[in-house]
Predict the 3D structure of the following.
Amino acid sequence: MRCVVTGCAGFIGSNLTDRLLSLGHDVVGYDNLSTGRISFLHNARASGRFQFVEGDLLNQERLTTAVQGSEFVFHMAANADVRFGTEHPTKDLHQNTIATVNVLEAMRSSGTKRIAFASTGSVYGEAEIFPTPETAPFPIQTSLYAASKLGGEAFIEAYCEGFGMQGFIFRFVSILGERYTHGHIVDFSKQLRDNPEILHVLGNGKQRKSYLYVGDCIDAILMVIEKSTAKTTVLNLGTDEYCEVSDSIGWICEELGVKPQVNYSGGDRGWIGDNPFIFLDCSAVRALGWKPKLSIKEGVIRTVRYLRDNPELLT
Amino acid sequence: MRCVVTGCAGFIGSNLTDRLLSLGHDVVGYDNLSTGRISFLHNARASGRFQFVEGDLLNQERLTTAVQGSEFVFHMAANADVRFGTEHPTKDLHQNTIATVNVLEAMRSSGTKRIAFASTGSVYGEAEIFPTPETAPFPIQTSLYAASKLGGEAFIEAYCEGFGMQGFIFRFVSILGERYTHGHIVDFSKQLRDNPEILHVLGNGKQRKSYLYVGDCIDAILMVIEKSTAKTTVLNLGTDEYCEVSDSIGWICEELGVKPQVNYSGGDRGWIGDNPFIFLDCSAVRALGWKPKLSIKEGVIRTVRYLRDNPELLT
């Protein structure tokens, strides 16, 4: 099929683009290169079935032109800068909610009916049920990032209802793997490169998080859009396990062969809106036949190696 | 206190403005008069404690100036045109979600910490639990209106978490009473004025809806902001009953002394995204000591009389 990948030069988007091309699909990649990297499109640009459009999702005209003639949009572009939301309060609104509606409008005017959306387990806020199912009690939002993603989800659902589209909403845990460019493994890898003797960690190290390897994430997305026939599908995507930040630190240090003194800033969360426990119930997507190939530990180690082998990403 | 009422010339906003002034508060009313009516501010403008600012919520500068120096914002302005959402798909995004973030930004830059927000029971989509509690399972959105209101809720919650604000989110059923200017009672009153012999009704008349009288709605809002100390309070607001559209038709016709032939368009909903059953669990707000004074029937009759006595609203 001919499809669009927004955020095609980003971490998940570029991996997805490569996969779609390898499966024989035609891909129009859309990215403003604000955080995406043209180098991540090295393989894609060698393909005759790939077309790159440098554009911003807030440019409705350019976006609509790019979507024209495609039957599926993988909407992966986002401001994924969860931690610094309160430093630029309207960025999430623009890049996540408004940008998503712009994608929907582009689809509406070009007759494109199917969309997959990279949402986040953060929309459960401070969940009270673990693992947290898709049907958890209606949550209170605790970060601008999650609020803006929930806004995106809501508009996708309403467009599906109002305009006969089909939507696939994936609530990700944190994704790891090749082309990972921000998050705790980048932070720790940078610190340990600069000084292997000491590591500063936000929070008390006891925050419990769940992670998923990017290859497994893409396997799940492609399986679900194949199998699910519902008007709107909302699915958690993660592993059936979680780890503490301190576990992850142990694996990273072991892999890098360092034994730093670890200084914890203290408190049960790393920053305002940080969620001290994310662990999603993924039984619904598992029931469709998918399961992750890599454990959290294997995903962390693979990411550490990737960053070690690509030191330019740690600048 | 000095407070801001957005949508001060609208149905609920103008009633709230009058009430706040009668309680001795200073009110800055903000309205773009797109659907609000200056005539609804007749009482307010006679007060030395009322200041009217004609402005759009998308005009951030004007809004921020208006909010300056107030300690509370009652954010009642909205595109409340639920039914025609799909005819102008981005109107809800702009007037409900983006406008709400603009209000939050105005508050942030002026140090205003408390906000009450007129949300909607429609955010429960096609609920599966009746009466529907605030902790209902995480719903799928079925209208652009509800999606945009949910976006507003989400950003308010995130601003409360991130910037130390206090938010009061009220999920209303349909509100009735003086200055009601759109909805089924206006539609039916117009039709019956033009031809008392026949009434065209969308759907099969079996849609079950809940309503609340505007005076009761305002009682609840003012009680909750007094009593609730939580960072974010989310409460349903409605009566502990519902009626069928056909019940409401009976009361309206009896009050108007007409016996029309009723033609139903058929189907279990009036339009795309219409919800065939809205009935909210209001035990949480009732537990704070509030209860509605008027039944749904009394609210409907009062609204019919008001529209009969103010025929200019039916043009």
Notes: Residues 205 and 245 of chain B are 5 Å apart (CA to CA).
